[in-house]
Amino acid sequence: MSLTALFLGYGRMGASLGEAWIEADLVQRIDAVDPHRAQDVKARVYRSAAELPDTIYDLVIVAVKPAMAREALAAVSIARLRNASIISVMAGVSIATLEQALPIACPVVRSMPNTPVMVHQGCVGLFGGISVTSPLRDKISQLYNAVGKSYWVETEEQLHAITALSGSGPAYYHLFSEALADAGERLGLPSELAKQLAAQTALGAATLQCGDGANFSSLRQEVTSPNGTTHAAIEVFEKDSALRCLVTEAVVKAHQRSIELSQG
């Protein structure tokens, strides 16, 4: 795709996306406005929008802190936006808010990527406004599939659930891995070995879960021999549905917080 893209913000998330798109030849050129970013990337970095070349962009990716969204969009001239589609990677900023901040009408897509996009294993939720066409959806899917897998949702409200499940989800898995490694240490394993075992186990389990037709319950049961070691541990997790209740409570709390943040 011979696309020209402008990134407003080129921090860890923005650069992970932009550099991957350049590598995959999905964009012809990326300009980025970020006063804190060194020119250590393939994108051309500018300290302010006033320094940008006179380019008409195909895509404008808004990757600044949510509170800076209006200011960042207002700094981009109408001429540069006249053929652009807007992609937001900001949590909690609605399509209506973005449309109001734009000086002209543009198609707007919200995306909710998670941190594994940095290793091309991300999970990205997408929702498009009414002016987003099927060809544009396909184009954006192709971009995000370069850093993992993308999934469109039917309503903007569902992005709150995406945020709570996959947006925040990597932290849940990291916390469980911390706990598993700590338990290994308590059983006498060296700290570094316990961490390596926990990480490799997580990677292997996730790979199995991502297989065609994988069933989480069946995968668990395949490891759980009656009255064996795994069975003894699973009984603790499943007593009074303790683990499931805790996970549900945590994800619901994240969902509620996502809604609160979107309301300012």
TrEMBL record:
The keyword Oxidoreductase applies. This is Pyrroline-5-carboxylate reductase. Residues 156-261 form the Pyrroline-5-carboxylate reductase dimerisation domain. It is an enzyme of class 1 (oxidoreductase). NADP(+) binds at L8, G9, Y10, G11, R12, M13, A63, V64, K65, P66. Residues 7-92 form the Pyrroline-5-carboxylate reductase catalytic N-terminal domain. It is found in: Cytoplasm. It comes from Paracandidimonas soli. It catalyses: L-proline + NADP(+) = (S)-1-pyrroline-5-carboxylate + NADPH + 2 H(+); L-proline + NAD(+) = (S)-1-pyrroline-5-carboxylate + NADH + 2 H(+).
